[in-house]
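Report of the visiting student (M.T.), summer placement. My assignment was to run the structure pipeline on a short list of targets and document each run. The first record concerns MFS transporter.
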Amino acid sequence: MSTMNDSRDLTPPAHSPDLADRRRVVFATVIGTTVEWYDFFIYAFAAGLVFGEIFFAGLGENRLLLSFATVGVSFLFRPLGAFLAGHLGDRYGRKVILMVTLILMGLATSLIGLLPTYATIGVAAPVLLVLLRIIQGVSAGGEWGGAVLMAVEHAPGRRRGLFGAGPQTGVPLGLLLASGVMALMAMIAPGDAFLEWGWRIPFLLSVVLILVGYYVRRKVEESPVFAELAERKQEAQMPILRLFRRHTVLVVVAALVFAGNNAVGYMTTGGYIQNYATSPEGPLGLDRGPVLWAVTGSAVTWLISTIIAGAVSDRLGRRTTYVLGWILQLVGVLALFPLVNTGDVGLLFAGLALLTLGLGFTYGPQAALYAELFPASIRFSGVSISYAIGAIAGGAFAPMIAAALVQATGSTTAVTLYLAGMTLVGLLATLVLRDRSGIPLGPDHEAEQQVSPIRGLSKV
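After the run finished, the structure tokens were exported:
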């Protein structure tokens, strides 16, 4: 149980935000991360549904694996985005990074919607696609750390889990928006029309979403923790060097916590289930529209469980909430493919909904957990780089691994074992950590923050 009390809500009075400021920050982070993840997910959906046919058409029978590989390529560049954003964010603030990442992601997404196909420009088409996907990866690597720190560092100490769940809802909201728009376009432009032009509209809509996100984000104040660091001129000069000199083990453990969630989550956000259920060459051959609507519905259950988990973590502590989440996630993993393989869209939705219950409980508390693990002066670098490494170890190639396992074995049993194994990795990494719910986040408490959260270690 958490041992939080009023004395641990130690946001510096000079920079303490009022309730209206806090709500504005949460709203801005939710809007911004939703736009970012909408952009990221429509790529993954299109990779599973159309990119193999239109961008990799001349590259043989492995075109689907190549298409899913481009989903993973972006993850390899997330650490670059995390390193850049962490370094600049710890030196110049959280807000400026959020503006830059939003614009980069949106521009890359919009340009994908304008790309010529393989039939038009040959091998240049997949090359340009990969380059734009790399830009998306750099942007995603820098986005998350800034968004969650803005929310958590503005939050009252007793409600960090709930406030931190705000930007976390950007994933299910982005999934909801992306799958909903894709499903709508599948209705408006069915069959060949979807391959020819229907898939492009969701990418081009990103322009509008960027303008909305930019407008909202530019109105929020800088994080009070960074504001105090800047006022005292205590910004870290070499934050990444300090991070790896003192906190390497912590970065690895934190990354493994996220990897356990991310590998499982990318069964839907990475487009694998959509492709598996709808491919004419696969065992189910379901219609594209109903499957996309089922994914859209599961995004709602993910959204709700993410918010609930953030609030629960304020009562039970981050560690206990995570352990509960890993148990729920394992149940969802074991039930997923037996339900999907029935070929019934209603049962497919049930499988996804059950899975997202566990995903919400292993994702909702993550913002507060990560923020409480690292000292204030290098916190942006710590959370961003841990997140990026966890994304590579978890979700980067999860859809491609799943496709390869089914191709090699002819069944989904191996995929279930793979996802169950990643869930257990996340559970073990969580058990290694102490619960630091409610630890003061300001620069006055760096000595306390430096004490290792890893069991058995007193200093990092």
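The longest helix spans residues 19-54. The domain at 15-450 is CATH 1.20.1250.20 (Growth Hormone; Chain: A;). I thank the supervising group for their guidance throughout the placement.
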